[in-house]
Amino acid sequence: MNSTRALFWVHKWLGLIAGAFLLVIALTGAYLVYDAELDRLFNPEIRTRPVKDHPVAMDTVLRAARAQFADRHVGLVTFPGDPQAPFVVSLRMIDQDGTFVRDQVYVDAGTGEIAGHRVSSHYLTSWILRLHEGLWLPERWGQPLVAVFGIVMALLGITGLWVYRKKLWDALRLRKTTQRLGRAHAHLGVWALLFAVLLGITGTILNFSSLLVVCRAPPVPQMGSEWAILDRIPSVDTLIAAAHRAFPELEVHGVYFPSGPKDYVKIGGYVPGGHILGKSSYVAFAVSPSPEITGVYDARQASLGMRLLFMTNSLHYGDFWGDASKIPYVVAGLVLTFLAGSGLWIGLRPRRILTVGTGAARRT
Predict the structure, then answer these.
(1) Are the beta carbons of 280 and 310 closer than 8 angstroms?
(2) What pTM, to 2 d.p., does this model score?
């Protein structure tokens, strides 16, 4: 058996074994590229606000959330991402039955009033995210399984390129891509190779830590801080202003509160020209005995390995250049969905076989 035929069988059986799961992962991934915009479309009552020149103070946002949800822990507060978005306060708690619950509280950036509240996983975008990241299986098994499927997706892209390498020129000339399902599968696969490998590798990296969970106890949920931490901070807005003075280039995205005994707060966000690095730059403040800056971290100055790691999430969801990068990712997600579905059909469909000497045909 030559190398091409061997890789064809590897490609075929990997696709047949993982095809249905990859179809779900690719389709949900295409949705998640525009998750915030689609969430706002489906839920305008909690995703829109009156247009204001200046949003309300962060202290006002935290007071509103604390007054109504005093029994929760606060983990993160994110700034509005566009003129129609609210502040989002991420809260956590352990329910009476021991279930870890994540809440999202939406605070109108124009009025400072709570516009809505949702329990995570009880709305469409969160449901799709959980399906994409773990196929709605128990976290201990779902995320590691999806990490393995990421490796499979990358292998399908690489083996597919070799198997269909003779069709590369035809695919680039955009000829004969719709005459037969098999040809369309081969040609579109050539175009989607880069995304298949990229999404497969980055998805595996994002879920890499979950692979270790199979061999050890699940991690303790990140609870965030008790509201009492705010009593030791005269003003969160003062911290944000101090962060701007210490790191003028920082485009603040949110305020991160610690979990457990750690007594610090981080003002984090993007840096100019470094959106592909994600929200990985920050200014850290020690809270006790009084708030003071303990560190300024510019992701652009990190080692090459760390910068590649920071880029993983942006490269997986394609949000580093706004719509200019999101649109190709959506198209790629839909193409990968087609490839998963067509690959299953090609591999499982009945085949017509000619009986030698009779001219009769039968299906197997």
Answers:
(1) yes
(2) 0.79
